[in-house]
Every structure is written in C-alpha cells, then in structure tokens.
Design goal:
Blueprint (H helix, E strand, L loop, with lengths): L9 E4 L2 E4 L7 H13 L10 H5 L5 H15 L1 E2 L9 H9 L5 H16 L8 H11 L4 H9 L7 E2 L8 H18 L1 E9 L3 H14 L3 E7 L2 E7 L2 H4 L6 H17 L3 E11 L2 E7 L22 H13 L5 E4 L4 E3 L2 E3 L3 E5 L2 E8 L4 H16 L4 E6 L13 E7 L2 E3 L2 H8 L4
Parallel strand pairs: 14-15, 15-16
Antiparallel strand pairs: 1-2, 3-4, 5-7, 5-8, 6-7, 6-12, 8-9, 10-13, 11-12, 13-14, 16-17
Length: 424
C-alpha cells in the first residue's frame, strides 16, 4: 500500500508538496538493482542485499522504495521441501505417505496431540522433536528445518514470468509515490478533456459508489472536472477513505485511457502531521504504471437501501411508473448531476436521490444541486435516512425519510406514490 512517507523523497515549499519521481536518468542504477534481484532469485528474502541497492542512489529513501517495488515485481514463494533437506529425507517421508510440507506438519501436530495432549512445554520441546525424528528415522535438525519452513522468514525471492524492465520499475515506483500521497490525502481533483461526457460521468459515479467515495462533477470552459473525497466528518479521521479515493482515481485513469480522454491536471490535498499540503501536477506527467494486482476492499458502507428501492419499483411498476438506474447526466449551470435513479411514466420524469450518510460540506453541495434542478423545472424527490431528516427541512422539495435496522429497511412507498400521483 504505497511506499510510506518514510521511504518518500519530497520537498515542502509554501504549503505545496513536491515528491520525487523516477525517470530514465536513473536507468543505470535501476538496471543494477534489477540484476541484484536476479542474482537472488530462489534465495531467502531476508538475504537480499538491500543496503547495496540503497547505496546506488543519492537518497537512500529512493533506494528503499526501489527495493519495495522489486519485491512486489518478483514476489515471494515458499521453498519446496526438496530444496531444503536431502533426497534420503524426502524418500523416508514419502515412504510414510508424507508428500508435502502440509502432510509433514499434519503428521507432526498429530504426534503432539497423541503423545503430549496438544501442548509441549518449552523445556520438553527438544525431546518431542527427537522422539518424532526417531519415529521417522530423521535427524532432529531436519525436523526443525521443515517445521520452520512456511514461516515468514523462510520465504524466498520468486521468479516473475518475465524479467522486469527499467520502465516497469520506474512506472510502478511512481505509481507507489502517488498512491502513498493519495492514501494519505483527503481529496483528489482532476481536470480532463473528454469526448463522451455522458458515458464518462456515469462510469465515474459507478466506480465511486463501489468504494463509497463521494464525487462532484463539473463542466467548466468545455473541460470536465471531478473531485473525489470521503465522508470524513461522519466516519472519522480525514484520511480514512484515502485508500478508496486512490483506487477510484487510478481506476478513473484506466477508464479514461479506453475512452480516449486526456488528463490535463490533477491535485491532491495531502495530510502530513495533521497539516494539509497541495500536490499539483500537469503534463508532461511522470511515467505511471498501475500494478495488475492493485486492489482494495469494496463498499465501506453498502447500498442496500438503493437496491431495495430499485427492485421494489422495477418488479411491480406501481401505477405505471418504471425506474432507470444511472440516468444520463444533467448539465446545468456548470454542474454535472447524475441522480441515483429516474422514475419514468410516459413523458414524465422524476429524479430520485437517496441520502444515506451526511456531513455539512456534502449536504451543502447536494442542496445546491437540488436548487439548480428546481430552478430548471426538473422534478426530484429525496429519500433520506431518518437520522438526517431534520437537515432537509425548509428545502422546499419533496423529502421522504426511511429507516434501516440491520437487514430491514422501511421505505414509505405509499407516500412516494401519492406524490407521484400529483405529477402531470
């Protein structure tokens, strides 16, 4: 998960943070680091001469970061029994039906359960190992070796499907730098030039919802601007959602590549020692490669209420009303608004927004969106968690409250249908 600030080279000047990125000027140093890892394939990870790699770079933090990147690129493996003990030991074990490390450990712990009732006091451990070794005609040394096999310190440097290139190391190192900053950030903003605005807006909203990240979309001077942030006032510290924001941001970059969109600028509000610093980047941007195994947990809070509302309408189509998820974006007064749903009946449309969590900044933005929709005669209904219902008093829009208790949710469908009956 990023390099961590202790491995990050950066400068802070007048409230702005300037991180160090790798580029082709360090080709010789990176090539040497790759060769060191090549020489250590199959050896214990703990035996990698990290100091030798660190000394290749002027700043040891960069060297440590390169080590971390190469460890991810090469991966780690557990050594096979055949590579740890002699052939005659393997033959004796197989004669007893022990063909794998798992079989060996199962045999050992079965013996402990049988002879020592599942627990061996430390002072009798050597005796237990000797008795087990004698049973299988092994040396206690070999038993100890196999028992420690599979523990973290016994891991060896793996062999990737292809030798990493200099560009692989540069790209993933730079990715890890950005991931560290965003993960320790509270907001990311980006400006793009896009062709298919509707498709892009809907895909971004979908991706943000998957990871419970809030986002605002704007259209300014023909440019598309997006801001990602987390509901921090409700859910704790400012950077709690940093990992999800980072994932959403990088998934957006990947999405935009396929849609021929172009990144013009991005900013990150980075929190460091309880102070906020700004990272601002414009093209030409450093080479960044997103690792294939870049993942994070989805849905820090779920969309159970949305599912319940959607399927209740979709399955029964009450009084002729149908429902559409992720309707086409509405662009009004520079805002790009993508409501949760739109209810449709003949030529009538009613947008629906579900508010299941709240903080002041988020609520104010939502209210502005609702005011814009109302000014332009766009019909909208708001379904809000009963805990925040009072915050919407006086907004002059139809607001309905729902209650959720564990896996049950009470939605006032009757009142909503009565409101829809007034739509002409």
């Amino acid at each position: 998960m990023g390099l961590g600030f202790s491995n990050l080279q950066y400068r802070i000047i007048k409230g702005k943070i300037y991180p160090f990125f790798l580029d082709r000027r360090y080709e010789a140093e990176i090539s040497a680091a790759i060769n060191i890892f090549e020489e250590n394939v199959g050896k214990k990870v703990s035996e990698i001469p990290r100091e030798l790699i660190e000394d290749l770079f002027e700043d040891k933090r960069v060297g440590r970061g390169v080590c971390l990147v190469l460890e991810k690129l090469y991966g780690t493996e557990m050594p096979e029994m055949e590579n740890v003990v002699k052939k005659e030991v393997i033959s004796r074990l197989r004669a007893h039906g022990i063909k794998s490390l798992e079989d060996f450990k199962l045999a050992f712990y079965s013996y402990i359960n049988e002879k020592w009732e599942g627990f061996v006091p430390e002072k009798f451990r050597n005796k237990a190992v000797e008795e087990f070794a004698e049973k299988y005609k092994l040396r206690p040394f070999d038993v100890e070796k196999l028992l420690t096999l599979g523990e973290e310190e016994s891991k060896i440097v793996g062999r990737p499907s292809s030798k990493p290139t200099v560009d692989d190391v540069i790209g993933i190192y730079n990715f890890e730098v950005l991931d560290t900053l965003i993960t320790n950030g509270k907001k990311v903003g980006a400006i793009f030039h896009v062709r298919n605005l509707g498709t892009v807006a809907k895909r971004i909203i979908r991706e943000a919802k998957r990871f419970s990240v809030l986002c605002d979309l704007y259209l300014e001077d023909g440019k598309f601007r997006v801001e990602f942030y987390g509901p921090r006032e409700l859910f704790g510290r400012a950077t709690r959602f940093g990992r999800a924001i980072s994932h959403t941001f990088f998934k957006t970059l990947t999405l935009f590549e396929s849609l021929e969109a172009r990144l013009l600028e991005f900013t990150v509000e980075v929190v460091l020692r309880e102070k906020t610093y700004i990272l601002r980047a414009k093209p030409p941007l450093p080479l960044v490669k997103i690792p294939e195994k870049y993942e994070t947990k989805e849905a820090m809070f779920d969309s159970f209420v949305e599912k319940r509302f959607y399927w209740a309408i979709k399955s029964s189509k009450p009084r002729g009303w149908d429902i559409i998820r992720e309707p086409e974006p509405i662009i009004l007064e520079g805002m790009i608004i993508v409501p949760d749903f739109v209810l449709v009946k003949n030529d009538e449309k009613v947008f629906v927004e579900i508010v299941g969590y709240w903080r002041k900044e988020y609520l104010e933005k939502k209210k502005k969106q609702f005011e814009v929709l109302k000014r332009h005669d766009q019909k909208i209904a708001i379904l809000v968690d009963h805990k925040y219902f009072d915050e919407f008093k006086g907004c002059e829009l139809p607001v309905f409250k729902y209650k959720r208790k564990q896996e049950k949710v009470d939605i006032p469908f009757g009142k909503i249908l009565n409101f829809l009956d007034t739509i002409h």
